[in-house]
Amino acid sequence: MADGSEQKSLPIYTVDAFASAPFTGNSAAVCPISSAEEDIPDDLKCRIAMEMNISETAFVHPAKSGETFQNASEFNLRWFTPINEVKLCGHATMATATTIFRALGNEGSELRFNTLSGQLVAKRDGQLITLNLPVNPCSPKVPENLDGLIQEALCGIKPLDLQHAPGANVELIMRLPDEGGRASLEGLTPNISKFMSHHNTGEVKGVIVTVKASGEVNEDGTPYDFFSRYFAPWNGILEDPVTGAAHTVLSDYWSGVLGKQELFARQCSKRGGDVRIRLLGDNRVELAGKAALVIQGKINI
C-alpha cells in the first residue's frame, strides 16, 4: 500500500463437496479464523460471501481459547450465502471439515461444529467425509396458494406428491411421477427467477424436486434410490449443485416411501454429486461423500 502499511488478509479455500474430482459436486468457500478473539464482524462475513459469489461461504474458528486448527476438535461454524446467513448447510460443513483435515493439518478423525442447527459432527473414513446432521422431517401439510410456484417449478407436470419441511431451511418437496424417471427431472427448465414472484411469504425458501430411481447405477455399479434438484432464489441461489441440507429432508421422505434406513442418491445439477445416506434414529442422519480441495489462498479485507 502507498503508506507502507500491510493490508489485513485471511486465508481462504474452496472445496468441491460431494465430489469425486475437482469441478464437480458443490463448491463452498471456507474462511478459517484463528480464534474467537480474531473473529470478524457479520457485515464483513456477508461482504466476503458476496465477493466469493458461490452458494455458501463458511467461517470457522476453534471453540476453545488457546487451541489451534491443528489440535482442536471443537469449532464454531457459520454459513453465509451471497445475500444472507443460513441455519444449516451440509456441503459447506463437509468443505470445512476437508479444509481442517487436509489443508490445516488436523490429524484427528472427528470434528465437532457448534452451529445454528446445534452441534454437527464430521468424521473422515479414507476418502469419505461423513456428516452427522439433524433430520428435518416433512409432512403433507403444505402452505396454501402455491399453484403458481408448482406450475413454474415443474413446467406444467402434475406432482405425484407434495410435502413441506418447515425446519432449518423451510423447503417444499415436489415429487415427480415415477414413470418420467430421471429424464423428466433433468429435463425441467423452470424460470427460477420467477419463483419469488409466485411465493414470497417465507413459508417456502427452497424447492426440492425429486423422483424415484428406476434401476440406474453410479460408475461403481451402486444402484440409486432417488434423484433430486434444488432451487433457492430466496437465499440468492438459483440452482444449488449438491445440497446436504436438502438431503436431511429427502432422507426422511424417501426412507418413509421405500422403507429403508440406508439410501444412495444423486443430485442432478450440471455439476452433480452422489450422497450416501444412513438414518440413525433419534432424529439424526449421516450423509457421506467425497470432497476435493481446489483453491488455497488469501483474501484481503
How is this structure best described in words?
There is one protein chain. Helix content is about 20%, strand content about 35%. With about 300 residues, it is of the alpha+beta class. The protein folds into 2 domains: about 10-135 and about 290-300, Diaminopimelate Epimerase, Chain A, domain 1, CATH 3.10.310; about 145-280, Diaminopimelate Epimerase, Chain A, domain 1. The chain has 6 helices and 17 strands. It has a 17-stranded mixed sheet that branches.
How would you concisely characterize the structure shown here?
The chain is an alpha+beta fold and 301 residues long.
Label this structure with key terms.
301 residues, alpha+beta, Diaminopimelate Epimerase, Chain A, domain 1, 17-stranded mixed beta sheet, 17 strands, 19% helix, globular
Layout of helices and strands:
Layout: E1 9-17, E2 26-32, H1 42-52, E3 56-62, E4 74-80, E5 85-86, H2 90-103, E6 110-115, E7 118-125, E8 128-134, H3 147-154, E9 161-165, E10 171-175, H4 181-186, H5 195-198, E11 206-212, E12 226-232, E13 237-240, H6 244-258, E14 262-267, E15 273-281, E16 284-289, E17 291-300
Parallel strand pairs: 2-3, 4-6, 10-11, 12-14
Antiparallel strand pairs: 1-2, 1-17, 3-4, 4-5, 6-7, 7-8, 8-16, 9-10, 11-12, 12-13, 14-15, 15-16
